[in-house]
Each structure stands twice: as C-alpha cells, then as structure tokens.
Amino acid sequence: MSTSQPSSGTASGQGTGTAPEEAPPVLLRNARLTGVHSSEDADRVDVLLRDGVVAEIGQGLAVPDGAEVVDLDGRWLGPGLWDSHVHMDQWALVRRRLDVSSAGSAAAAASLVGERLRSQPPAPGQPLIGYGFQDALWADEPTRALLDAVSGDVPVVLVSKDLHSVWLDSRALEAHGHGGHPTGLLREADAFAVSTAVSAVSEDQLDEWVGEAAEAAAARGVVGIVDLEMTLSVDRWARRVAAGTTCLRVRAGVYPADLDEVVGRGLRTGDVVPDTHGLVEMGPAKIITDGSLGTRTAWCHDSYVGMEGDPAARGVATYGREALVDHLKRASSAGLVPAVHAIGDAANASALDALEEVGCGGSIEHAQLLDPVDVERFARLGIVASIQPEHAMDDRDVADRLWAGRTGRSYAWGSLAEAGVRLQLGSDAPVAPLDPWVAMAAAVWRARDGRDPWHPEQRLAARTALAASTGGRTSVEVGSVADLVVTEIDPLTATDHDLRTMVVSATLLGGRFTHLTHLTLLTLLTP
After folding, report:
1. What is the dihedral of CA 13, 97, 125, 149, to 10 degrees?
2. Rounded to 5 degrees, what are φ and ψ at 234?
3. Region 118-139: what's the mean pLDDT?
4. Kind and range of the H or E element at 58?
5. Quick one: which of 223, 165, 234 has its CA closest to 195?
6. C or N terminus of the chain, fewer CB within 10 Å?
7. Helical segments of 199-297, H only
8. What pLDDT score was predicted for residue 41?
9. What is the mean pLDDT of residues 417-439?
C-alpha cells in the first residue's frame, strides 16, 4: 500500500479528461454528514463512492480493490453545489477587467480609468474594458466627457454591474456606431450589443479563461452551473469538455435569437450532448421581459421614486403579452423549459400571466419585486423562483431609494418559501461572484459588511438555502449522485462570515476529485 499527499494546492478535472464513469472507487473515512450529524455529534461514518454514485454509508466499511481512501477526520460531507444562473463567458472575461465597483461617483470611476491607463495601458489599438459601476446612487452623471478627459486616444468601455448599461468615451462610441450619442451611457439592447462586441476574443483564448473560471468554481464546491450566456454556448461546452474541462456539469441555455437553430436540431431541455461524458445538457429557453433596478428599466406597476411623470417612470416591458405567449408556446412545444427574466412587479405579473396561459411551467429569473398575490401564483402554477440573493445586498440602498415603500415585498424569499414555491439560488455572475456560499450567506442572513439585516423577515432557513443550492438535496444518501463537497465546518450552523469565507477541502464530481487541497492534510491511500 502506498501513501502520498497531493503535491499542489488543487487536484482538478481541468486537463485530466477523466470521465465520471472511469473514476476509481473512493472511500471517504470519518465523515460527518451535513444535515444528519450535529457539531456536537461524535459519530463518524465512512462513505463509499462507486460508478459515480454513493454506494454505501456505514462504519468500518471495507476498502474495495483499487480504491482511493481519504480520511476526512471529522470534516463535513454534503451535496455539491449548483449555481443556477451564470453567464460563464462574461464571468471569465470580467475576471480580467478593470474593477470599478468601488467607485462612489462618476468622477471616481473616471479616475480609476485614468490610473489604469497610466499604470497599465492596453496594447496599441485595444480598448480598456472595465466592469462593475453602479450609477443609480451617484450624485453626478456618467458622461462621455468625463471619460474623454482621462482616456486620450484609448477607447474606453465600462460595463455596469448588472450588465444592463455600458458607459463609453467618444472613441468607443464611434467604434460601436453611436458617435452622436449625447451622454455615452447606453442601456438595454444597445448595451448588450456593445458588451457582446467587446467580449469577442479568440475561441482558444476564451476556452482557456473559461477553464480557469471553472476550476475556480470547483474549488468553491461547485459541481454544476446553468449557463445563460446570450450567445448559444452548448457547442462551446462540448468542445471544452473534449479539450479537458471536465470539472463542472453544465446546462446551457438558449435565447430567442438562437431558438430556431436549437429547435431545428431537436434539442430539448435535459438532453445530454453526445461525447461530453454526460457533463453537458441542453438547458432552458431564456427570454428577457424587462430591464434592471439599477438602470430604472425593471418594469413596475408604480413609478420609480423621483421619476413621476416621466414616460419611462415605470421601466421597460421588452415583450408584449402576445409576443411573450407566442415565444413560450414555441419553446415549450419543442421541449424547452422557459426561463423568464422578470425583475419588476409588473414584469413578474405579466410573466406569470403568460406562463399560466401557455401552461408550460418553467422558472422566473430574479423575481425581485412581487405583488403579494403573485407569490401565491408562483406556488399554484409550479413556477420555480430562480433568485440571486447577493443582488439584494448590492441593491438594498438603491431599492430603498427607488422602490421606497415597496421594499417589504422585494427580494421576498421568505414569503416565497412559506408559500411552498421551489427556489433555486444563483449568482448571475458576473453580476455577483460565482460562489454559492456567498448566495447562501445573503439568503440566510440578509446582511453584509457589518450592516444590520435588511428586511430580516424575508430570510431563508439555512436548510432551505442549502436545498436551493443543491437541486433539492440537503444530505448525502445511498444511491444519490456522488457530486459532493467537503467543508471544514457545518454549513447549516455557519455564520454569515463563515459562509462567505467557507473553506472547501474537496469537491467531487461523479465520485472524481475536481478539487483537493493539500492544506487539509488529507491522506490518499491506494491499496
């Protein structure tokens, strides 16, 4: 019997090409099971993983031939985590962009741009791309002139934190066909077009960066994502898996622009893409029906505070009822489950109306402001509320200003859970970090940065938040898929800080290690 320890910080599925069904048996010794054991419980169990599933749980289990044996030494073993709303290409790109999220004003953001151009300018002819500004609470306006004053001859494109607006200097405006724009701040469709254009890199480069982002996600205990990139990504993911990016399961969504192609290929939600070791599936059919809170384009029943009398005071409905119903019928009749973006209360009511008329089920993505009667409709219609809890922590001050008097029914996760609505947690990365522990912290504690909880009556129970981050699993059971995470502490009793800084000792996908840190001093034994 040989004994060894991992020689590097992680053991990852990236580059290994090892399919789940090819993984050797793994015996995890001395585990405490999340949702079963308590912190005071002295009992430990062994967990045998074979052929991608949990084969046996007990004490003193025999070591199968050829098995890897890992002593967890009382660490916590729980279901692996899913992020149910990710823009993976954008997340991979944002990890390399100028972060302007700390800017408290347009002038401060422009100053950050100037500092970067002086210290680390882009290659000649290339733009500077930044990310993360939130202008809703700024006292000054983001204008092309502010950026022109610091950018010189470099095109500058800043993407907002919620992705629904972009701020450009004059050179960038000319390059993207908006030379005559008065302010340089583009919203919604125009912003999406610019964001897509500046995200264009070679396929090889993007695949490399996405692979690195996937490894980073696996290191946080993530086993799967729902990728809602605005361009069809299912074939990109098949290519990435073939090249060795095998550390995540991926459900790749489709937007209206590519719906005909997906329908023509006969792809249905849940279909496994061939030659991906079962890791890539066709995901939902995404459609965006309104904007966002930060850009004041989320479609609401009532005016945004301070915009009364403005034609756009209630936000923007991007689809009329008939067009939305037609799209849902087209997608659902082809076997694609709808995922409807709706943030404002009017958008959510409209989405529920359309889903009820079509009778197709599906999810509403975000569900940030809800009329109380619509909470019950989620439950009655069986519509999943796919929520991104960290958005509430980012948006609480903006919501208090723009949705004053309505915030008691905004980000109303507690009400949804009490009504029996199925919840799914996600990040909307890059809007928030691709880290389900952060989402759970926001859901359970509704606080950050030492501030008091915001509308604590809408907090989720820890077990509910965990289930919404694991596809409904709260514990490890015989026969369940061996997508698992090992943590140093019990997630169900963790504080806000503990969740946000959760130490992940190992992640397994189909019984195969995609992350294993030597800092945990785990020992691998191979008979």
Report:
1. 180
2. -60, -40
3. 95
4. strand 53-58
5. 165
6. N
7. 203-218, 234-243, 256-264
8. 74
9. 98
Predicted confidence band at 23 (pLDDT cuts at 50, 70, 90)? confident
- CA separation, residue 264 to residues 259, 268, 273, 283, 325 (Å): 8, 11, 15, 15, 20
User: What does residue 489 show for φ and ψ, rounded to 5 degrees?
Assistant: -130, 170
Give the gyration radius of the chain's Cα atoms: 23
pLDDT value of residue 212: 97
pLDDT tens digit sequence for 212-223: 999 999 999 999
Q: For residue 503, what pLDDT is reported?
A: 96
Integer Cα distance of 351 and 371 in angstroms? 13
Structure token digits, residue 358: 């079509």
- Pull the structure tokens for residue 62: 């025999």
Report the C-alpha gap between 352 and 370 in whole angstroms.
Answer: 11
The tokens for 275 are: 């030659």
Identify the pLDDT of residue 518. 54
All residues at 6 or more sequence positions from 397 whose CB lies less than 8 Å from its CB, including other chains: 137
pLDDT, tens only, 146-162: 999 999 999 999 999 99
Backbone phi, then psi, for 517, in 5-degree steps? -95, 135
Measured between alpha carbons, how far apart are the two ends of the chain, in Å?
5
Pull the structure tokens for residue 23.
């993984």
Residue with tokens 């962009």: 97
Q: Residues with Cβ < 8 Å from 7, sequence gap 6 or more? A: 518
DSSP state of 317: B
Q: Is the pLDDT of residue 13 over 60?
A: no
With b for 16 or more beta-carbon neighbours within 10 A and e for fewer, the 317-344 pattern comes to bbbeeeebbebbbbbbebbbbbbbbbbb
Q: How far apart are alpha carbons 392 and 397 in whole angstroms? A: 9
**Dihedral angle over CA of 6, 96, 250, 294, nearest 10:** 130
Contacts for 527 with CB less than 8 Å, ≥ 6 apart? 1, 63, 65, 66, 67, 69
Name the packing angle between helices 321-333 and 345-358 (round to 10°): 50
HSE, side-chain direction, 13 A CA sphere, residue 194: 32
